[in-house]
Design goal:
This protein is α/β, with parallel strands linked by helices. The protein is about 40% helix and about 25% strand. The structure holds 5-O-phosphono-beta-D-ribofuranosylamine.
């Protein structure tokens, strides 16, 4: 049986959880967050999914999370709004089995510090006529792993960064669960 986890703060984790709720082969087995008060943890509890809150020290100085993943038979990791760089031991353990979603068409508007509204503000400022989402495997560098999937949407002159963010979220919600399912079904 395949399992996967989502580590994030919100709406993508929710969509993914809903998408796989009645799937016989793929379960969201654990939700991980680095914030004890993240709303995603309430969503997890409401769906009966175990949660794990991590701290920086343990995450970077120990490999304890691997033992916990093992306990839950995790074999696929989904990052959805997780902003910490993934340490080498974790990248190696889940090579080709850990994906992230980035709210732009990488390699544009990626890298350290390029997250959330900052991405959409930069897209707007540059006068881009399109933007989109990138789902990619995770390696030791921010936003640099192999690209699995991209989808784009237009940026109209009247669009604000907030409008762009909404359109991007729609794209993520439409595609991310399905792309994960496809990867896990191969
Ligand atoms: C998404 O836009 C994703 O691209 C980025 O973080 C955001 C998370 O949004 N990596 P949400 O918490 O799932 O709503």
């Amino acid at each position: 049986m395949k399992h996967h986890i989502a580590t994030g703060t919100g709406s993508n984790a929710k969509k993914i959880t809903e998408h796989f709720k009645h799937n016989q082969n793929i379960n969201v087995s654990l939700i991980v967050s680095n914030k004890a008060d993240a709303p995603v943890l309430d969503m997890a509890r409401a769906n009966g999914i175990p949660v794990l809150v991590i701290n920086r020290q343990d995450f970077y100085q120990t490999e304890d999370i691997l033992k916990i993943f093992n306990k839950y038979s995790i074999d696929f990791v989904v990052l959805a709004g997780f902003l910490w760089l993934v340490p080498t031991y974790l990248v190696r353990a889940f090579e080709g089995r850990m994906v992230n979603v980035h709210p732009a068409l990488l390699p544009k508007y990626g890298g350290k510090g390029m997250y959330g509204m900052r991405v959409h503000e930069a897209v707007k400022k540059a006068g881009e006529t399109e933007t989109g989402i990138t789902i990619h495997f995770v390696n030791e560098h921010y936003d640099e792993g192999d690209v699995v999937f991209q989808a784009s949407c237009p940026v109209r002159p009247e669009d604000t960064p907030e409008n762009i963010a909404q359109n991007i979220h729609k794209l993520e919600h439409r595609h991310f669960p399905e792309v994960i399912e496809r990867l896990l079904s191969n």
